[in-house]
Design brief:
The complex is a heterodimer of chains A (292) and B (293). With 292 residues, chain A is mostly helical. Chain A contains 15 helices and no strands. Chain A is elongated and about 90 Å long. With 293 residues, chain B is an all-alpha fold. In chain B, helix 10 runs antiparallel to helix 14. The model of chain B has no long low-confidence stretch (mean pLDDT 86). The chains are: A mainly alpha (292), B mainly alpha (293). Chains A and B meet through helix 1, helix 3 and helix 14 of A and helix 2, helix 3 and helix 13 of B.
């Protein structure tokens, strides 16, 4: 019975190739599931079509539609993973590449992988074609740069997008106004430099925390450091040299490095809060104008 | 030509392939292929759903069922999803030639998950094969599992009283015998001695258990707090709060070190047992991988 498996499978192969295949897949069925918002079932049906159809361009469509199912379902990274399957196809033309890379960048942006998303935008920029995807890639790149707090470059990307788009002149002017009013240096969110904050705290204990506008923490840190120094000096005065050299110096070092190291968390949090407000406001205004 | 047509029709008749069953048969085959495609692409949730659909057909050829369980189990196994792999691999029936591989791997997964009794039950349930090497492999795996279960009598009866002929097993059985000796040699050192040594000189108990790094660390910490406490006592007297504080801190570290040394005796034993167990698990896994490459 065990050895019969091979023969049985071989026989199946022979018979099936002889009689042809039964139609197991249906693009219409997958499309109808998608339209009925049964995205996960539609994704499986598209995968089935991808598996059984041998035509490369249809297979390409099936995977992109499947990726779209995951995107609609809110699983952006799964959507990216599906699109990634198509990236190694050497037969892709430039417009297919632009479409694929744009979708990859968009899904990665929505999954908050901004650095990876930017790589795809840069790839699109290197293509010698111009179409809807390459134009939209500028917009996406702008939003990505906003998230990375690179507002100068983001400004150029938004202007590139407006100039390359085929909107009416009035709409273009409105969009340009939004960009020019938002991207004035005085309107940028006030971000703090971690490097500068650390340097300040190293030179004057607690100064980095004042710079990060955490006055309470700064005063506490300074007080603790002063207490540690005072304790060490007192022990030196009393002649407890070993206590001063070990416990005293250890306490000073502990509070000093603690004051510097807590900036690693405080500064990014401060920057995130400030930039979030600015980025969201700009995105809403810009996209609302685009939709009009 | 007529003769060929007749032969063909006879062939069809013999296989009882009326139009409907043949269509079903093709559909099952295509569904089976699709499930394999899904599992190879690690789309496990979808593969499971499709497999359930396929199995819901009561007229399905059992070979499809076995094949799906095997391929899904193997993909899960490669992805280190051992619970799912186990579930599928144990479902493979002895109607297929990959039954042995599936069940040996299932047993191995159980052994790695510390379910030695389940692993033994799986190996015992594997049927005798006409292939002598497979029977030897079974005996070898069981002996390894008895060793993991610390059942030295059964281990000896399987490993020492039987002469293994397969080269892959010969090497590993020797390793198992060595691990058996090591396992029996791992003895618990005395926590009392470790504690006493640490009381005489902080860190000495850790040296006794074999943790030289920890010993140095304990010695320096206790020594430092001891010196600070002594300095405070000499300069400011026993009643000064700083003396009391540092004496308390020193006492805490000193007693903690004695306690730690006593506890580390047991920990060291467990660590050595874990290491030996890991070696045994590797030894019983190697022949399976070599056999079913």
């Amino acid at each position: 019975m065990r050895t019969s498996t091979i023969y049985w499978l071989a026989l199946k192969f022979l018979l099936i190739s002889f009689f042809g295949k039964a139609q197991l897949f249906s693009i219409e069925k997958a499309d109808s599931l998608f339209e009925n918002r049964a995205y996960l079932l539609a994704a499986t049906e598209y995968e089935r079509c991808y598996f059984f159809i041998k035509n490369d361009s249809v297979r390409f469509d099936m995977v992109t539609k499947r990726a779209n199912c995951f995107k609609k379902n809110g699983d952006f990274f799964e959507s990216y993973k599906n699109l990634y399957r198509l990236l190694n196809n050497e037969l892709l033309n430039d417009s297919s590449k632009a479409f694929l890379w744009y979708e990859c960048a968009l899904n990665l942006y929505l999954s908050k992988y901004y650095n990876d998303a930017e790589k795809y935008c840069l790839r699109i920029a290197s293509l010698p074609i111009s179409n809807k995807n390459t134009v939209n890639a500028n917009l996406l790149h702008g939003f990505i740069l906003n998230e990375k707090n690179d507002y100068f470059q983001a400004n150029y990307k938004f202007l590139d997008f407006i100039n390359q788009s085929d909107f009416a002149l009035e709409k273009k002017e409105n969009l340009k106004k939004i960009v020019s009013s938002s991207y004035k240096k005085e309107n940028f969110p006030k971000l703090k430099s971690l490097k500068k904050a650390r340097r300040l705290s190293k030179i004057i204990p607690g100064a980095g925390l004042f710079y990060a506008k955490r006055h309470g923490k700064a005063l506490t840190n300074i007080s603790l450091q002063l207490l540690a120094v005072g304790y060490t000096v007192l022990n030196l005065y009393l002649g407890n040299y070993i206590t001063a050299a070990t416990v005293g110096t250890h306490l000073i070092r502990l509070f000093y490095t603690g004051g510097v190291n807590q900036l690693n968390e405080i500064i990014p949090l401060y920057n995130y809060k400030n930039s979030r407000k600015y980025n969201d406001k700009f995105k809403d205004t810009f996209l609302n104008e685009l939709k009009r | 030509m007529k003769f060929k047509v007749f032969i063909f029709l006879f062939f069809l008749k013999n296989f009882d392939l009326n139009a409907q069953t043949f269509k079903d048969s093709i559909r099952d085959f295509d569904n089976f292929n699709f499930i394999i495609h899904l599992s190879k692409n690690k789309l496990f949730t979808e593969a499971e759903t499709e497999a359930e659909k396929l199995f819901s057909n009561s007229f399905i050829n059992p070979l499809y069922k076995d094949s799906v369980h095997y391929f899904l189990g193997m993909e899960y196994y490669n992805e280190k999803k051992t619970n799912e792999a186990l579930k599928h691999l144990t479902e493979v029936s002895d109607n297929v030639f990959f039954y042995y591989k599936a069940h040996y791997l299932a047993g191995n997964i159980n052994a790695e998950n510390n379910k030695i009794d389940s692993a033994i039950a799986i190996y015992k349930s594997i049927e005798e094969s006409t292939n002598n090497s497979l029977n030897e492999l079974n005996r070898f795996e069981l002996s390894g599992l008895y060793l993991l279960n610390k059942n030295y009598q059964l281990f000896d009866s399987l490993s020492k009283n039987f002469k293994f002929q397969t080269p892959e097993i010969q090497e590993e059985i020797q390793n198992l015998k060595n691990y058996s000796i090591i396992e029996q040699k791992i003895k618990r050192k005395s926590p009392f001695i470790a504690g006493t040594l640490s009381a005489i000189l902080p860190g000495l108990g850790k040296v006794y258990t074999g943790n030289n790094g920890q010993a140095l660390s304990s010695f320096l910490t206790c020594g430092l707090f001891g010196i600070v406490a002594a300095e405070n006592y000499l300069r400011m007297g026993i009643k000064h709060p700083q003396t009391i504080f540092f004496s308390g801190l020193f006492s805490l570290f000193y007693i903690g070190n004695i306690w730690g040394s006593a506890v580390s005796v047991q920990l060291v034993k467990i660590e050595k047992q874990h290491e030996n167990k890991h070696n045994i698990l590797v030894s019983i896994k190697v022949p399976i991988n070599k056999f079913f490459r």
